[in-house]
Amino acid sequence: MPPKFKAKHGRQSISYPQNVKFDGDYIHLPKIGLVHCRRHRDFEGNIKTVTVSRNPDGKHFVSVLISDGKEKPEFVPADQAIGIDVGLTHFAIASDGSKFGNPKHFVKGQRNLKRKQQKLASKNKNSQNRKKAKLAVAKVHSKIARCREDFLHKLSRKIVDENQVIAVENLNIKGMVKNHNLAKAISDVGWGMFCTMLKYKSESEGKRYVEIDRWFPSSKTCHICLNRVDNLTLDIRAWSCQHCGHHHDRDVNAAINIRNEALRILALGTSASAGGGDVSGQE
Ligand SMILES: [Zn+2]
Question: Residue 58 — pLDDT band, cuts 50, 70, 90?
Answer without folding.
Answer: confident
